[in-house]
TrEMBL record:
Gene Ontology molecular function, alphabetical: proteasome binding
Organism: Struthio camelus australis
The protein, known as: Proteasome assembly chaperone 1
Keywords attached to this entry: Chaperone, Proteasome
GO biological process: proteasome core complex assembly
InterPro entries referenced in this protein's UniProt entry, alphabetically: Proteasome_assmbl_chp_1
The UniProt record lists the keyword Chaperone: yes
Chaperone in keyword set: yes
């Protein structure tokens, strides 16, 4: 429905997603992998360089990120998915920091004023969010 309201000319989509490192398929043990880490998956029309290695087979992407990427592939919209594999259940600053290399990408570079302040801002946002999730308020 979101894409139905947008012009497709000149559109480029970037999808950010996280999932458990246990879902990552590899020959080596997932215990030796540095967590969190990023993998990318892109449509044929996406011509920009990606900021991390591409996702290898037989790994798959699920749910909404997969649906958005599939829609973009069918409608020939340039799109890239950055999948962060992490060993934590709840989003934290370490996991968000894994996405930091994307801030220097061509499409996201104009959205960021000062990358050096990003860590401090993220910590503040996550700390305020934690108080709302506390069961013992």
């Amino acid at each position: 429905q979101v894409f139905g309201c947008m012009r497709k000319e000149g559109l480029q989509v970037t999808i950010l997603s996280t999932c458990p490192v246990a879902d990552y398929k590899t020959q080596e043990s997932t215990l030796t992998l540095p967590s969190p880490f990023l993998k990318a998956l892109k449509t044929k029309e996406f011509k920009e360089p990606v900021c991390c290695p591409l996702l290898e087979q037989p790994n798959i992407v699920r749910d909404l990120p997969a649906a958005v990427l599939s829609y973009c592939q069918v409608w020939q919209i340039p799109a890239v998915l950055y999948q962060c594999y992490t060993d934590v259940i709840k989003l934290d600053t370490v996991t968000i920091e894994a996405f930091k290399p994307l801030l220097s990408s061509k499409i996201l570079k104009n959205l960021v004023k000062d990358i050096s302040e990003s860590t401090k801002i993220l910590k503040k946002l996550l700390t305020s969010n934690e108080t709302h999730n506390n069961i013992y308020i």
